[in-house]
Write a structure and sequence with these properties.
Chain A is of the alpha/beta class. Chain A has 21 helices and 18 strands. The longest helix of chain B has 32 residues. Chain B is flat, with a radius of gyration of 23 Å. Classes of the chains: A alpha/beta, B mainly alpha.
């Protein structure tokens, strides 16, 4: 049954001559799980807001076409913090019901039901500002569901969360659809996590829905490779003709058939690091830490017994759960926090880029933003601002207001505002958070470019795939301690949780496969010897 | 202790009025002591002293500046050099006392804000006001949100700016103030941008579409009744005392004395406030009283 229909809809924001959405024709059926994908700025959020009337009723603008929605729509946005209105969790869930004018008895019953349904009883009496990002997002979902919306739109709900909180949210969304028949539209960048949950895909490009269909057809159309989940992309590129696997579990089933009975494969011994210092860069130590401890004023020990040695021209990665001490370590390295105990020697200028690029941007133009850092350090612009802007592809935006730029551009301006003082050591805290695949890839290229220039980069992130591609040395932190250190190959081949998708796919099947490229070659080779009809059988 | 929004508003407005219209320094001291004791009962005296510390420099500057610019007093303590714009520097006893009186009043008002915050539940306030003035509540909600975010964001942005070369611990006060400008600008812009997302959220949750109901809205309790009764009594007594001239005190050109009647009135008022404090303190300790009111 159709619960929402959009016909010939075109929409332009106020004061904009270009339409944000063009000729949209869509139907939503009850129980659908629609994955809405597209580049940043392609119109995903705008489309999501059309369904519950925020567009045009809240934003204004020009809209034409027909929009019909049978169900009340609940919407959950990206940033969990900015959606919460009330101070107590219980009252936050009750808030939309109060606004509907329901009686106190009705509100009470619905709130209790929702708390049980979403398994949020433990949070009931907590203050919303005491919650973690993931918990806040769950409360937002509960608040949307409480008003009996069986049609839920989620606009990148996990983009600001760490992986375990994101998995929690996605599992909950999957349960709502599978077990309770809720209709879901999910706009998401991290396709690997949620592709298998969807039954339909909408691919939006420059304000137009260019694909509306099922997953099987999606693999056959020409979309940028960044918008195809990694496992599916691997099998598709390798020329696999059967039903393309979407999950690691399905992929392993195919591999088992291809490889036959599992023999204990030889352990990979010749691990080659891809991040040997660049040949032109002379080996120099930039920073050393010996038995460094850090305690916060309230007594919490955030770093314990840290030994670290950073060399010039390398990319280092630091992985770990929330609260494992990663950001504290960066702050100690940068000099923002002094070690409580131990010895740290620093022989270089340090640049530190925190998680939120908006914290850097306040000047009227991009140029002034870079000039500000230079002036504070008593340096002169000897042409380095223009050089850097050109290198970071920001030169044409030189006179733009940095706050008006896209997410990726803002990130580059924030990075430029640090790089302009020419630091030898660059510390990046979650640089890929909230970025889509294309922006992640351009960030990676940028880091390689700096490495070639002799810069040392330390990346703190949850993004295992990103580190696997760009870092040469990885450390895993747990409760303030470094528990493992090694090349990506060493680190990812020994762990289960901290491992790449490709490693998870090939572990126990072919332990020699470490990277996507190796997996692709092996898979092509196997497929060339394989009779496709066997799969049909 | 959380009170009904109506009781909180009445308490805040009533107390604000009686502090502002009062001219008598003894009464101002009495009000300051009452609010300090009330607040320390709620949050503990250590936290209260920490809050008072934040206002210390403002108060000190009033005590210093007022005698320098005021020339209404008759007891000259110091007659100094002639300064440009200001003229001859004259410091009088009345000027110093008036400055101190203003500082006491300012501190009382400053602590009154903290006390009001402690007595109110933000959610209750939001629900209460949204029924009668939803646009005003919206505005207040944004402002409160901005203040709330400010606390968390200041440290983060400060670290970012330090890495960009700003020095917040510069010896020169002017340079220190200048360093805070970018920090405040970042926070202000972020808060304004955040307000749009918050407004979207409010819209999607149906705020303002119809007259809202209240969930678990606080009902007027006996405690609220006591707070409101005391406050009405206090305002009534203040107006009566003002009419009778019992609050009268003049600083310039020379300070008047305090009459016996005024002292009696201040004593009576002190007793009234003390009984109020005893009820509030005992309520926190006596479970039976807590249950009853």
């Amino acid at each position: 049954m159709e619960i929402a229909t959009i016909q010939d809809m075109t929409y332009s924001y106020p004061n904009s001559i270009y339409p944000a959405l063009k000729n949209i024709n869509l139907k939503v059926y009850e129980g659908d799980f629609i994955l809405l994908i597209g580049e940043s700025g392609s119109g995903k959020s705008t489309l999501a807001k059309v369904f519950n009337g925020i567009i045009p009723h809240f934003y204004g603008g020009t809209i034409c076409g027909n929009i019909q929605c049978e169900e009340e729509v609940g919407i959950v946005f990206q940033d969990p913090e900015k959606q919460i209105i009330m101070e107590s969790v219980e009252k936050e869930i009750a808030f939309p019901l109060e606004n509907k004018g329901l009686s106190e008895a009705d509100i009470k019953r619905t709130v209790m039901e929702t708390l049980s349904f979403m398994n949020l009883w433990e949070l009931k009496d907590k203050k919303t500002y005491q919650l973690s990002g993931g918990e806040r997002q769950k409360v937002n979902m509960a608040s949307s569901l409480a008003k009996h919306s069986r049609f839920l739109i989620l606009d990148e709900p996990t983009s600001q969360l760490d992986p375990s909180a994101a998995d929690d949210i996605l599992n909950m969304i999957g349960r709502l659809n599978q077990d309770f028949g809720y209709t879901i539209i999910l706009a998401e960048q991290q396709l690997d996590r949620c592709f298998s949950m969807a039954n339909r895909i909408w691919y939006i490009k420059e304000g137009q829905v260019v694909f509306d269909g099922n997953k099987k057809d999606f693999f056959n159309i020409n979309v940028p490779k960044e918008f195809v989940p990694l496992i599916g992309k691997l099998f598709k590129e390798a020329g696999f003709q059967g039903s393309i696997p979407e999950t690691i579990r399905d992929g392993r089933k195919v591999l088992r058939k291809l490889y036959g009975p599992i023999e204990k494969s030889k352990k990979h011994t010749t691990l080659e690091s891809k991040d040997n210092t660049h040949p032109r860069v002379k080996k120099t130590t930039l920073l050393t830490m010996k038995k460094v401890y850090f305690r916060y004023e309230e007594g919490m020990e955030a770093l314990k017994d840290i030994d670290l040695h950073l060399e010039k021209g390398r990319i280092y990665g630091i992985l770990g759960e929330i609260g494992s001490g990663k950001t504290t370590l960066l702050k100690v390295m940068s000099g923002l926090l002094p070690p409580s105990q131990g010895k740290m020697e620093k022989h270089c200028l340090v640049g530190y880029l925190s998680q939120n690029p908006n914290d850097y941007l306040f000047n009227d133009t991009v140029y002034e933003e870079l000039e500000f850092t230079l002036k504070n350090h008593g340096m002169k612009d000897d042409g380095r601002i223009d050089y850097l802007l050109k290198e970071l592809e920001l030169y044409k935006l030189k006179d733009s207001n940095p706050r008006d730029l896209s997410g990726g551009e803002k990130q580059r301006v924030a990075l430029a505002s640090i790089l302009v003082m020419d630091p030898e050591l660059i510390l990046l805290d979650e640089p890929t958070r909230g970025l889509d695949y294309i922006l992640r890839s351009s960030m990676g290229k940028l880091l390689n470019f700096f490495k070639e220039q002799g810069k040392t980069i330390v990346i703190v992130t949850h993004d295992v795939e990103f580190l696997a591609m760009y870092a040469g040395n990885i450390r895993i932190m747990f409760k303030g301690e470094i528990v493992q250190e090694g090349t990506p190959e060493e680190v990812f081949s020994t762990g289960n949780y901290y491992s790449t998708q490709i490693r998870k796919l090939f572990t126990g099947v072919d332990d020699e496969v470490q990277s996507y490229e190796e997996g692709l070659i092996k898979l092509r080779l196997k497929l060339s010897h394989w009779d496709e009809r066997e799969f049909v059988k | 202790m959380k009170c009904h929004p109506l009781a909180v508003i009445l308490f805040f407005l009533g107390f604000m009025c009686i502090v502002l219209i009062n001219d008598n320094p003894l009464l101002s001291i009495l009000y300051l002591v009452y609010i300090s004791l009330f607040l320390s009962g709620e949050i503990g005296y250590k936290k209260m002293l920490k809050n008072m510390k934040a206002a210390f420099w403002t108060i000190l500057s009033i005590i210093i500046i007022n005698p320098l610019v005021s020339r209404g007093g008759s007891h000259v303590l110091y007659r100094g050099i002639r300064l440009p714009l200001v003229g001859r520097l004259i410091i009088t006893l009345e000027g110093i006392c008036f400055g101190m009186h203003m500082s006491i009043k300012l501190m009382a008002i400053y602590l009154l804000f903290f006390l009001t915050y402690e007595l109110s539940d933000q959610d209750d306030m939001f629900s209460f006001f949204s029924r009668y003035a939803y646009k005003l509540t919206l505005l207040l909600s944004f402002s409160l949100n901005m203040a709330h975010r400010l606390v968390g964001e200041v440290q983060r942005v400060k670290e970012v700016m330090m890495m960009r070369g700003l020095q917040f611990h510069n010896k020169s006060i002017l340079k220190r103030i200048k360093a805070y400008y970018p920090l405040l600008k970042v926070i202000l812009i972020s808060s304004l941008e955040g307000s749009i997302e918050r407004a979207e959220s409010l819209y999607s949750k149906g705020y303002g579409k119809q007259q809202p109901t209240r969930y678990k809205g606080k009902k007027l309790s006996l405690l609220d009744g006591i707070v409101m009764t005391y406050m009405l009594l206090l305002v009534g007594m203040t107006l009566w005392a003002r009419h009778k001239g019992l609050q009268y005190f003049r600083f310039y050109p020379h300070m008047t004395g305090i009459s016996l009647e005024s002292l009696k009135y201040i004593g009576l008022l002190g007793l009234l406030l003390l009984t109020n404090l005893i009820i509030i303190w005992r309520r926190q300790r006596w479970k039976l009283l807590q249950y009853k009111i």
